[in-house]
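User: I'll paste a sequence; please echo it back and then give the predicted structure.

Assistant: Echoing your sequence first, then the prediction.
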Amino acid sequence: MSTEVVEKVHCLIIGSGPAGYTAAIYAARANLKPLMYTGLLQGGQLVNTTDVENYPGYPQGILGPEMMEDFKKQAERFGTDIRFGIATKVDFSTTPKKVWIDDTKLLEADAVILATGAEAKWLGIPSEKRLNGSGVSACAVCDGFFYKGTEVAIVGAGDTACEEAIYLSKLCTRVHMIVRRDQMRASKIMQDRVVDTHNITIYWNSETDEVLGENVVEAVRIVNKLTGEKTTVPVAGFFVAIGHQPNSAIFKDFIETDDQGYVITAPDSTKTKIEGVFACGDLQDKIYRQAVTAAGTGCMAALEAERWLSEKGF
C-alpha cells in the first residue's frame, strides 16, 4: 500500500445518500471545498428503492434513484467534488486524518464526515433479491403505505420487527409474522402488544421457504421447522425486519461503536470521540433510519465541521 500523500483535503465526506449529499450541500455553501467519495452504492440504499412518497418537497412522490440524482446535482451545483471510490482504510490518530481510497490513494483531510450508512440484513433466498422493490422491502415505515388494505408478511422477532408489525397492522387487513423460534427476542411489552393485536397472525418455529410471484410478490411459503409442514399464504408485501448492519468496520479501531456497530456520537451532536471526525445518517442512527432524518444529521455534521475547522484555525 502506498504511503505517499496524493491529495490534501479540507473537508472529506465518505459515503453518499441523503446524509452525505446534505452534508456536501452545507459544506460547499460554507466554502469548505468538500470532496466526497460515494462508496460502492452511489446514492446509498435509496437507489434500491422505487417510490419515495414521504420525503418533503415531492408531492407526487419520486423514484429513489431520481431523488438521489437530484441530491447529487444540488451538491455539485455548489461545488462539491464527487468521485466514485471506496474508503478501505483510515488512520484517525493523526492530524490531519488519513484515509485510503481503493487501497491505493491516500488522502489527508482536516475534517472528515462519515456517512457510510447501514445495510439491511436479508434472509438470503433468491426470490427475496429478485423481488426487492417489487413487494419485498426492509422498511415498513418507508413502504407500508403502498400495501394499505392488503395482507402482508413480516419476518423478525426483535423490537423493530414488533414495531413494524404493529405499524403495518394499522394499514393492512392482516399481518402474517414469521418467527424462527417459539418466542421472540423483543421486550416483553412489545411482544404483548403484538400478541394483543387482533389482525397479526404469528407463525412460531417457522421460516420463509420462498417468496412467490413472477414480477411482484403474490404469496409467501412458510415452513414449520418442527413438523416440516409448508403453508402458502397470499400476500401483497413481504417485509424483512431482522436487523441492519452499519458500515463501520474500517472505523472501529478509532471510533467508538455500540454492540451492533453503530457509531456513537455525543448527545444531540454528530461529533465522535475523535476531534474533527463527524458521523451522520444511518451509520449512527439505529432508531429512525429515514431519508429525512439522515439528511438532518448530514446538515448537523457539516455545520459542526465548519464550526470546528474555524475554531481550530484550519
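The mean pLDDT is 94. DSSP finds seven helices and 19 strands in the chain.
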